[in-house]
Amino acid sequence: MALREPQPGTATEGRLIVRKLLLLLALLLLACDAELPPNTPAVRVDQVMGAEPDPGFTRALEARPFRFPQDYGAHPEYATEWWYLTGNLQTQKGHRFGYQFTLFRVALRPGEPLQDSAWRTRQIYMGHLAISDVAAARHYSAERLSRAAAGLAGARATPFEVWLGPWSMRADSGLFPMKVSAENGDIGLSLQLLAGNKPIVLQGDRGLSRKSATPGNASYYYSFTRLPTRGELHIGDRVYSVQGDSWLDREWSSSALDSDQAGWDWFALQLEDGRDLMYYQLRTRQGGMHAFSRGTLVEKDGSVRTLLPEQVKLTPLRHWQAEGNTRYPVSWRLQVPEQGLDLEVQALLDDQLMDHSVQYWEGAVEVSGSHRGRGYLELSGYAGSP
Amino acid sequence: MNLFSPLLLRAGLRYLMHHRWQGLLALSGIALGVAVVLAVDLANSGARAAFELSVQQLQGKATHRLAVPGDLLPDEVYINLKRQPGAPPMAPVVSDWVRIKGAPGRYQLVGFDLFAEAPFRGQIAERLTAPAFISDWLTDAGGLLPGAAATRALRLVAGDRLDIVYRDQPTTLQVLQANTQQDSSGDNVLLVDIATAKTILDMQGQLSYVDLILDPDSEHWIRQHIPPGVELQTVAEQAQGVTRLSAAFELNLTAMSLLAMLVGMFLVFNAMTFSLVQRRSLFGRLRAIGVTPRELFTLILLEAVMMAMLGTLLGMLIGVWLGKGLTRLVAATVSDLYYTVSVSALQLDGTSLMFAAVLGVLATLLATLVPAWQAARTPPLTTLSRTALEQAARRGIPLWAVFGLLLLLAGLLLALVLPGGVIMSFAGLFSLVLGAAMMTPLMIRLLHRLLTTVALPGIWRMGVRDLDRHLSRLGIAVAALMVALSASVGVGVMVESMRGSVHTWLTELLCADLYVAAQGFDEGARLPETFLQEVSGLETVAAISRYRERTLPLHGRHVELIGAHLAAPSRRGFALLSSTASAWQDFDNGAVLLSEPLAYRLGLVPGASLQLPTAEGPLNVQVAAVFRDYASEHGRIFLDETVYRRYWPDQGLNTLALFARNGEVASMRRELGELAAHTALVLTPAAAILEESMAVFDRTFRVTEVLRAVSLVVAFIGVLSALMALQLERGKEYAVLRALGLTRVQLVGLISGESLLMGLLAACVAIPTGVLMAWVLIQSVQQRAFGWTMPFSVDTGLLLQTLLVGLLAAGLAAIYPAWRSASRNPAPQLRED
Question: CATH no. for residue A338?
Fold first, then answer.
């Protein structure tokens, strides 16, 4: 999951990721115009948040059987979709890095596009690339956008490929080993992801991840939680040979959040004992934990246990203040008493802010406490709130 | 300066206050000179700025451009580059000219890929960011953002439908958002999504070009990654081709602006000299009471500075006002001829303002220096005698004339003999005009001598002699009138000569009976290939010439390349200026015909060879002949159809020229009409094309006509001010004359007769000067700027017209002074003494 929610205060906000993304695509263009104040996008987002989801999009109403390899590819009948990779990597000498590489698909309108030109499309791709250099305490990030037409961007199930210009995830057969490559100016990565020992994890109810009581406010969501990864990162003129573990989330939906939800805190933790923990807390406008918050604990053998909000206790320990007074809780205590977990999750760098068309915090974390581990933390819906 | 100076200054100011009219006239002289220069300059730069702005808006921050010379760029080139890691910012562009149904002018339909635009055209992209539009823009086939010009011209609001026509194919687009920005004045762009543009312009799989932002590293990268046939051009190279489009027009305006400046300088000079000459007696008295020459000199200069500043300020105000009207006129002509520009508000160009200000102050000071020095230098009291003054002025006349002759000769040498560019031609032209102006007093005196030998009735003789007496005052006014008149003659003769040669050239060239083109020809519409066979089968058709054309980038310009099958009579229509021994045979074997401007610019003569860029690499061709051509200043190349089709096979047929058998034009036309019933064709007789072309020609020079009129008006005001000052000064003299028995009518006759004589003399000098100017304009300026030559022809009607205008200006200028002097009661004036 990703994406920030806009400022609280308007009743209609928080509905449509599609609309927002689409708008923000445009606002990206403004970003290069130095005369505009940096917070302009947030203000404008509100203006379109009132729109209802276009009924022409298919909605995630009930659990469905996943079919592979087809479901590795795109689902253009849904409004949004993403291929979301995060991971913790290190060199042989122990130089640690975090990376995020996400390709988003956004449908501007439901239905088939006009057939007048090969450049005509209703689909847009947005890519986010970030590398956290822990030793140097630097976080680099980049964004890319394109229409999904004329071969400029797109997704294909067999042989698997999702691409956005030169950025791509691809495989010769199936999904793994997956070759991942992306670069932007000073930074770049070229990685190979192996299937590892963990099977696919269908999140929620057999892959239907409901985000609120409203039918259709849900996504199809599956994950690969521990993918042995090796390859190269480059930052400036330096090239690092790295290895570690990645985490892949695949999710598509047409409408996900309800009006009383402000954002989420999402944890993807790989523990040293072989267990993987995913938990997302949907925050209510009042700041509490929404009843539809969910998690899964993946055992070493791949068996999956669902975590409900009453089983999990989340306490923010420390906040980091970004520019514009947005405060992000970058250190947490995560307790699952039933599972004997009492974890302290701490950002490896405070500033792992993704400040592009969509502003959110996405960063590598270190896990300590009852168990040790590594992972990624995503904080959304904080921008604009005091 | 000593303590005395404030007192002196007060004396100067007092004089001006007392002789308010004189102060005002001097001031208006300066102001008008400055105003004209500024107005023309503003109009000129306004149109240019509007054009440059639209070019810049389109270029955005691009530094380079990828294109296939003379062709379109395949999509794959861009997409392959775009998918390579390390690719620099790139933006694909699809564009061409279209028309809007029910609206004049042409608009540029431009298709962008929004997602590639961010680094390039922030300003244009910004307009797309209104939230509701993005989806429509990308997914609708007809989403359109009109530019400022279209918005204003068609009064568009969001939701309006616009029918655009490309190659006779109409498409309806919907306005998503009306552009009400005031600053994007030259914006004649219709913005659509690239998919929409590709559909409308029928460019599937192809791009017009790709914009790039490159630094040296990425330039190297691009060069390594582009396939053969694709060329990397800098934006500067690209822009050159675009801006050259209006060079002819701009040169015209610049020439007129400079001539106006010259007239303006004369006015300033005239005004200042006059004001000083009149005060000779005052200066004499000041000298007599002990004012040193230095003090006097400083006083005069100080006064001049004050006058200059005030006059310049006033002139700038008038200039801005005048410039507004002129700018609109210039913009209208530019829109008519080249590209649609709309100048919503006057562009107050800093350089123009600065230039006008400097000119006003400098010219005034320059004009003051000599008389100030003279005034300061004269011994006390002698200055009181005006006769002495006139005699001194008279003595100076031959010297001025010699100096003027030298300048004139130097001008001719510079423009016609010495090698150099257009600037040198203009420098020569100015030297010539200045020289002629300096010779004017002598010429007038000679003409005057001639007049005195003619027996005239008493009162007339008085006027004639009187003029000679006031030469020191009137000489400069006459010279100013002369300059304005000669500029008018020069430009007029040039335009007439050009019109004549264009007419002859077209008449010879358009020798076919009927021309057939597809509708929407100027957007590149093509004739169906089957049509040719059908036409060939017609019995009434004796011969057919076929033409296929495209633009080709050649040495930084866009020349027209025409692949032609020329029938024998078409060949006779070419006025070959020089050719190889067997030019037409060579042409049939693949040699080319080069238009005169292109041959001049490239320095090519028949027999030389030339490289044409093609998709398969450069093509070497021989020059068979150079032909007279005014169709394009960039140049045209004729190539035999068979050779042409080998390199540009996809280019369809654009035009057919048909020759009727036994002069059966009417029946051929009827047969064709039946054939064309189901095809959108335009059948045009040669006469109609000729008429249309000449109409375009006349429209081009409409602004020139207006500027000619403006400079005449300025000269008229110059004469008026000189006359006014003179008559005011001579009030007492007139009173004496009246007292001696001269009637009011006689006095009016005397004054207007003098004035008319002045106009006549000015015109007499202006006519030869103007003809000489025209000669320089045609032989030097036109050739160096455009590369074409033309026979020189002088229309006597035009010369006569100039004479009349001179007389009219002088006559009109005399009305008020004459009325004023005559209506005054002489008694009080006499009593004052």
Answer: 2.40.370.10
Tell me the C-alpha distance between B329 and B309, whole Å: 30
Q: Model's pTM, two decimal places?
A: 0.69
B201 touches chain A (CB under 8 A): no
> Mean of the per-residue pLDDT values for chain B?
79
Question: What number of C-beta contacts closer than 8 Å exist between A and B?
Answer: 101
Collect all residues with Cβ–Cβ distance below 8 Å to B749 and sequence separation of at least 6.
B459
Residue of A nearest to B111 (CA): A119
Q: Does A151 contact B79 at a Cβ distance shorter than 8 Å?
A: yes
Last residue of a domain, one of B180, B203, B229: B229
Answer whether residue A248 shows pLDDT above 90: yes
With contacts defined as CB-CB under 8 Å, which chain A residues touch B195? 116-121, 149
Residue of chain A whose alpha carbon sits nearest to that of B92: A119
- What is the pLDDT at residue B237? 67
Backbone angles phi, psi at A37, to 5 degrees: -65, 145
Structural domains in chain A (count): 1
Q: How many domains are there within chain B?
A: 3
Q: Looking at the domain assignment, is residue A5 inside a domain?
A: no
SS3 assignment, position A78:
coil
Does the distance separating the beta carbons of A124 and B141 come in below 8 Å?
no
* Nearest CB to A183; choose among B85, B119, B131: B85
- Note whether residue B296 is domain-resident: yes
* Mean pLDDT value across residues B277-289: 75
Report whether pLDDT(B339) > 80: no
Instruction: Enumerate the residues of chain B whose CB falls inside 8 A of the CB of residue A152.
Output: 79, 82-83
Label residue B257 by pLDDT band (50, 70, 90). Answer: low
Which residues are within 8 A (CB) of B660 and not within 5 positions of it... i.e. 6 or more apart?
B513, B514, B540, B541, B542, B667, B668
Chain A residues interacting with chain B (CB cutoff of 8 angstroms): 22-23, 25-33, 44, 47-48, 108-109, 113-114, 116-122, 124, 145-147, 149-152, 163, 165-166, 181, 183, 188
Whether residues B666 and B573 fall in one domain: yes
Tell me the sheet residues that pair with A359.
Answer: A355
Using the Cβ of B653 and the Cβ atoms of chain A, whether some distance falls under 8 Å is answered with no
Confidence tier at B388 by pLDDT (50, 70, 90):
low
For residue A385, is it within any domain? no
Picking from B83, B117, B195, the nearest residue to A29 by CB comes out as B117
Locus of tokens 């009132």: A50
Mind listing the pLDDT tens digit for each residue in B682-733?
Answer: 778 888 878 877 877 777 677 677 767 766 776 677 667 766 666 666 777 7
The answer to whether B126 and B134 have CB atoms below 8 angstroms apart is no
Q: Are residues B23 and B74 in the same domain?
A: no
Q: Are residues B58 and B73 in the same domain?
A: no
Quote the domain boundaries for residue B213: 69-229
Nearest-angstrom CA–CA distance, A153 and A146: 6
B209 shares a domain with B160? yes
Domain that holds residue A305: 17-380
**Which of A119, A147, A156, A186 to mutate: most B Cβ within 10 Å?**
A119
CB contact under 8 A, A44 and B87: no
| Percentage of residues in chain A having pLDDT higher than 70 | 85
Q: How far apart are CA B223 and CA B237, in angstroms?
A: 17
Residues B129 and B192 reside in one and the same domain? yes
Q: Which of B229, B257, B290 is the last residue of a domain?
A: B229
Bridge partner list, A341: A336
- Is B247 found in the same domain as B354? yes
Dihedral sign for Cα B826, B828, B831, B833, please.
negative
Query: Smallest CA–CA separation between B68 and chain A, in Å?
Result: 20
B40-90 tens-digit pLDDT:
778 777 766 766 666 666 677 788 889 887 678 999 999 999 999 888 989
Domain membership flag for residue B473:
no
Say yes or no: B581 and B626 in one domain. Answer: yes
The verdict on residue A173 lying in a domain is yes
Q: pLDDT tens-digit profile of A98-117?
A: 999 999 998 888 888 888 89
Q: In which region does residue A204 sit, left (phi positive, over 0), alpha (psi from -120 to 50) or beta (all else)?
A: left
ipTM, two decimals: 0.87
